[in-house]
Design goal:
alpha/beta; 299 residues; 19% strand; 8-stranded mixed β-sheet; 35% helix; 3-stranded antiparallel β-sheet; globular; single chain
């Protein structure tokens, strides 16, 4: 395939278990983009005909890198240069202003941010990847632009000119959310959660990687996350620097007032503090550890 340069491009991956919904998902977003690249895992047999959607290019995984799971989105980055990129999940119905609302934030910042609809705040000293201070859930309403330290790659938007991503590094293991978020942080970019009304984004309930990993074991995600720091101070510094470079203030970008206050005066925004949810999650983590230890003892 010819390299795509300087366009607004979506990258999505799918597999036969979602072929029954894939046309609905693709049709909701393709018309908003210059191009949509769709990586198909396992087999294309039974994939609905999408040929009428002129800007959709299908990548048969068997002709490329094989079964990559969610990493198909990362593989597609090899074919993009200097693009505004949307990484997309195949179980959402994207609203008609999805691309426009993301690009409004991204372009006001001169590309100096990563924008997501689903964002999380990981514990500062992360001991378990699935333990979070808070989660800005994709289908829930969010008031004001928020900051997070982990972006959901099913709803992420970034500019390759400001956030270079090594596709080969992303392909090493399945952890696109984690690697994209660290790439943004290392590029000095804040991670912003898009403000929106309840139900703006619609999900079609289908089991995915979260269900596979989150309650079963200590995964490779945790191994990497433990080596990193997730403190607000680093992300606040990135936000201040990026806003200054863009010549825009927190109010001009629509940043949540409590978060803007913390950028100016220190402290933690509400979503970055310990709360009951994080305490309950730690209890779940300890239960998981005990279960693993018990299994090892029995073995």
């Amino acid at each position: 395939m010819t390299m795509i340069r300087g366009k607004v491009v979506g990258c999505m991956t799918t597999f036969p278990g979602r072929f029954d919904i894939i046309r609905q998902t693709v049709a909701s977003i393709a018309c908003q983009l210059d191009a949509l690249l769709l990586y198909v895992n396992e087999s294309t047999e039974g994939l609905p005909d999408l040929s009428d959607l002129r800007n959709v290019t299908i990548f048969d995984g068997q002709d490329h890198a094989g079964d990559l799971l969610a990493n198909g989105k990362a593989y597609l980055l090899k074919f993009l240069q200097d693009c505004e990129v949307f990484t997309l999940d195949d179980d959402f119905i994207y609203p008609p202003d999805y691309v426009a609302k993301n690009l409004d934030i991204l372009r006001k910042m001169g590309g100096r941010c990563l924008v997501t609809t689903h964002g999380s705040v990981v514990q500062e000293d992360c001991d378990w990847y699935y333990e979070r201070h808070s989660v800005f859930i994709s289908i829930r309403g969010v008031v004001g632009l928020q900051m997070c330290n982990l972006a959901g790659s099913g709803t992420a938007c970034f500019d390759q000119r400001r956030m270079p991503v090594d596709a080969d590094d992303l392909l090493e293991k399945v952890m696109v959310d984690l690697k994209l978020s660290l790439a943004a942080r290392d590029a000095g970019l804040p991670l912003f959660v898009l403000p929106r009304e309840e139900g703006w984004l619609t999900v079609i309930r289908k089991p995915g990687l979260w269900e596979k990993y989150s309650g079963i074991e200590i995964t490779h995600h945790t191994e990497l996350a433990r080596r990193e720091r997730w403190d607000f101070a680093t992300h606040a510094r990135n936000a201040r620097t990026a806003l200054a470079a863009a010549g825009i203030g927190p109010a001009g970008i629509g940043l949540d007032p409590a978060t803007a206050h913390c950028l100016d005066h220190g402290g933690l925004p509400p979503g970055w503090k310990h709360d009951l949810t994080s305490i309950l999650t730690r209890d779940n983590y300890l239960s998981l550890l005990n279960r693993i230890l018990d299994d090892e003892t029995i073995a």
